[in-house]
Amino acid sequence: MRFYIALIFASASATNAFVTSGGRHFAYRSRSTQPFDTAILMSTETTKSDITINESMPVAAFPPILDELRDVAMRLHTREQAPREGQAEAPAKPEVPYVPTQMDYLQFLVDSLAVYEVLENIVNNNEQLNMFRNSGIERTKELEKDIAWMCAKFNLERPAVGKAGKQYAEQLNGMIKRDDDIPEFICHYYNYYFAHLAGGRMIGKQMSKLLLDGETLEFYKWGEDVNELKAKVKAQIEELAKQWSREERDKCLNATAGAFRGGGAINGYLYGASPH
């Protein structure tokens, strides 16, 4: 069975860009030595924010932060991925699509766990992020079960955290040194969690068919309605962002390319772009 992983993982290597949005300007750097995933895997969904605003609430000075994040992220897509908004240069497609192995997938899970551990640790140790504790989207316990299951089921040895996971975890670990670093962290938090809540579920189904004899991993089971879970966390992000200045909001937006690179490098295990 030939598995066209390229249909699932769309990678892009965008150049430095200067974006104009809503009458303001902000710069972001998106050059990377590794491709980073965009449309299908990452969290920026193709529709605008579904946050419900009560009419009795005061009118916000800025649009919803998730709408702004989406606008920036869509520009990191290629024209093929986002015909109306994509601006990134499309990468050359390999002549023979890469077929991932069970060890590739196991490495992806191990590195994903390393990043989730850091994200949860940051949330649990910062009072300004306490609304995200026990949100229902945490994945560390589920990933631990899946890694142990794969090793036992397929007689695999658990690998150490790879370069991609280690680098991204270290980047996140040192991200919040002051309160005004929280907007940057929220960009990574949102993109990483929602990547798996959105397109990541489709990837999980494909990996299940290809590598796991149809078994669905705990990683892709949230125990409640996924759309309701997403809406709840999105509303919490919007509530937090109401406190931010324009400068803080732009700091959040400008972290998008870095979030794509961090998550995309880990996804690279599944299409041959990241060494183990």
At the fourth level of CATH, the homologous superfamily is Heme oxygenase-like
Count of individual beta strands: 4
**Strand composition percent:** 5-15%
Helix content: 40-55%
The biggest beta sheet is recorded as: 2 strands, antiparallel
From the structure provided, what is the oligomeric state, counting identical versus distinct chains? single chain
Shape from CA axes?
globular
pLDDT averaged residue by residue: 82
Structural class: mainly alpha
Helix count equals 9
Strand order of the largest sheet: 1-4
Domain tally: 1
Signal peptide: 1-17
Coiled coil: 223-250
InterPro entries: Haem_Oase (IPR002051), Haem_Oase-like (IPR016053), Haem_Oase-like_multi-hlx (IPR016084), Haem_Oase_decyc_pln (IPR016951)
Subcellular location: Plastid, Chloroplast
Summarize the structure.
Keywords: Chloroplast, Coiled coil, Heme, Iron, Metal-binding, Oxidoreductase, Photosynthesis, Plastid, Signal, Transit peptide. By secondary structure, the chain is mainly alpha-helical. 45% of the residues lie in helices and 5% in strands.
Q: What can you tell me about this protein's structure?
A:
- This protein has helices spanning 65-74, 102-124, 140-154, 163-173, 182-197, 199-211, 226-241, 246-253, 256-267; strands at 11-12, 17-21, 24-28, 36-37.
- The protein has 276 residues and is mostly helical.
- The strands form two sheets. The protein has a two-stranded antiparallel ribbon with strand order 1-4.
- A hairpin with a 2-residue loop joins β2 and β3.
- It starts with 10 loop residues before the first strand and ends in a 9-residue tail after the last helix.
